[in-house]
Design brief:
With 62 residues, this protein is mainly α. It is 81% helix and 0% strand. The protein has 1 helix and no strands.
Length: 62
Amino acid sequence: MNVNDIVQERIQAARNRIAANKRRRDELNAARTAGLTARHAQKLRHLTTRNTNPTNQPEGPD
């Protein structure tokens, strides 16, 4: 092996690390987005249930 081969191996290893880190970030971002979507949907379901249930309505001055 000569120096050029070693340099090319190191460059390829660095590219592989960069690609792996990008995939990891993309996967985490997708999971985060899915989690936030589910959380917001659950919150809206909860608010809808709370607001449409007549037993939970506060009594106003009549």
